[in-house]
Design brief:
This protein is α+β, with helices and mostly antiparallel strands and 353 residues long. It is 25% helix and 36% strand. Bound molecules: adenosine-5'-diphosphate (ADP) and magnesium ion.
Amino acid sequence: MSHVRLVNVTKRFGLVTAVDSLNLEVSKGECFSMLGPSGCGKTTTLRMVAGFEDLSEGEIYVGDRLISSPGKNYYLPPEKRDFGMVFQAFAVWPHLSVYENVAFPLRVRKLSASEIEKRTTDALRSTNLLNAAKDSPADLSGGGKQRVALARALAINPDVMLLDEPLSSLDPHLREEMRFEIKDLQRQYGFSIIYVTHDQSEAMALSDRILVMKLGVVQQIDTPFNVYNDPANKFVFSFIGLSNFLEIAWSGDKPFPRGSGAPLPLDLTPPDAMRKAKTFSLASRPSEIDFGGEDGLRGVVTRKSFLGEIIDYQIKIGEGEMRVQKSRRTPGPQVGETCGLSLRRPFWYTGTE
Ligand SMILES: Nc1ncnc2c1ncn2[C@@H]1O[C@H](COP(=O)(O)OP(=O)(O)O)[C@@H](O)[C@H]1O
Ligand SMILES: [Mg+2]
């Protein structure tokens, strides 16, 4: 069942179209991420869902209920949407105790004293903050402050949790730990999540589905697996996971890597769609390349870096290069050696898209 639904949602700021005809449906209990580079319209979208920003066009629904529609001049105010919200900055009130930070929105909603105590205590327990209830949030670490913000959002018992880069100001170790805590809380409370991030590994780890956005335009909406395995276009391919692009040009009827005297090997025959392009890209993931024999794609090792479990090779091919990542247990060539590459799964792209 669709829980939150955006229909042709568009937001313009003057001449800038921050969000362009966005359609999406988030199911009940789903963790849905919006992923894209800075400035692509993620925060604007979340603010429209929250009710902080009006729409230029389109409609937003929760279940069957319309909550935003410029056409009908209707906006349900943010406080009536009852969404939980956590933002990147540590938005806690330093002059209130941790307990009061969590209880405050419940007091504003005029819940009974016993209900306020129960919900506040539950939320503090779920976020491991019971022992810090009397402290000032100013004395907590960044992770602690974000837990307070999470607890405050949880206490209102939201159906939908809106999270805008909530972990990006934390250090990497804590960031990873808190991903799991958010998933645990979701299981416990059952809310749907709309999660905004520019960090693809965070989106992959957390989400049931990911929306990849570029300049306000949806590029793909799919599971993490499909977005990685079947990227809709070159942008998605390059934004998710590690990627290699080698520029190829036709010379006669043979495809040559730019600056290389040797044409691509036969097992890398470009698909027909590349025939009309003057130049195009051969793309692959560094982890999906093997060192092959004489008949592979020829290149010279220019760098070999030990990264622990994996070795990262940089291979120069004509004027371009490809990275290859292999287990340190796999034998590989040395710097300066010529090698043949076999691409397990080549992708082909014309133009920049
Ligand atoms: N209040 C505003 N006034 C004018 N332009 C804005 C405003 N808010 C956002 N924008 C513009 O809208 C675009 C999308 O911004 P934003 O939604 O913040 O992106 P993201 O969260 O993906 O980094 C950007 O070009 C940004 O400059
Ligand atoms: Mg943002």
